Amino acid sequence: MNTAPASYPIGTPGTPWGEAERNQWLSRQTRQRSYESEVVGKIERLRDRFDVEEYGRLEYGSESFPLLAIRTRDWRDGLPVVLVTGGVHGYETSGVHGALQFVDQHAADYAGRVNLLVAPCVSPWAYERIHRWNPQAVDPNRSFHDDSPAGESAALMRLVAPIRDRALLHIDLHETTDTDETEFRPALAARDGKPFEPGGIPDGFYLVDDSENPQPEFQQAVIAAVEQVTHIAPADGNGEIIGSPVVAPGVIQYPLKQLGLCASITNAPYKTTTEVYPDSPRATPEQCNTAQVAAVCAAIDYALAHR
């Protein structure tokens, strides 16, 4: 794994960024792939089987990004609601394409059993830049709260508001990458004027449970399914994964609502955040997408069986 830089090339160590530093950071971001062709195009091809809606639009300079969600066509108010989100961090590729693969290959399996609501790419600008933040250097996945500074987060919360109390399950699809350590954590420390503390990147898949409402059997059911597809991250020498105690194989916990994380936006009894490791020599992009799909299917199956 690459070593993180000694100091981040923007800003003054110990001093939080101001507008000038954010603008300098923004000037360094380049478009590397197409949301329109890689994501919107795939969603459009699902319109013959599912309802597709534009739940918002992000205007960044001369760029305009439609925010798209996919719904069960035969939506019935009496059925439980399952929410699947991906691409909250746009660079986490398998979250986006795993969500789309699930809809294409498996959503029909749950027809008449659940109402599905899928937002496959919450952060399209960051998807194109292969980045964690939005253009204001704001992390959408710390911004799911009232008066959110992130348009990506605010739009998703508006979409989800009508089903917030009716959701049975919310699964939020993420990745942990080597660039978390080489780019994104150093950038975060620089942005906030804090020292960068090097850490490690776990080799394998893991889940983040809600410490305020833990569901250990549910999390283990998801781990057991994903284990058939790709390897599960082991605890490090401190019994931790990314600085958090491992509470069960492949599972850590965060206070989701307190941290403003996407998985906190409903009152669903079952919530989890997946973390795939795409940089592992033991995993292919196809495996990463399939691991996300396996996690979604296992989560729905468990939630339906334990309603």
Automatic annotation (TrEMBL):
InterPro entries: AstE_AspA_cat, Peptidase_M14
Peptidase M14 domain sequence ranges: 31-307
CDD domains hit by this protein: M14_REP34-like
UniProt xrefs under SUPFAM superfamilies: Zn-dependent exopeptidases
Keyword annotations: Hydrolase, Metal-binding, Zinc
Lineage, broadest ranks: Bacteria, Pseudomonadati, Pseudomonadota, Gammaproteobacteria, Cellvibrionales
Cofactor(s) needed by this chain: Zn(2+)
Protein name per Swiss-Prot or TrEMBL: M14 family metallocarboxypeptidase
Pfam families in the cross-refs: AstE_AspA_cat (PF24827)
Similarity comment text for this entry: Belongs to the peptidase M14 family.
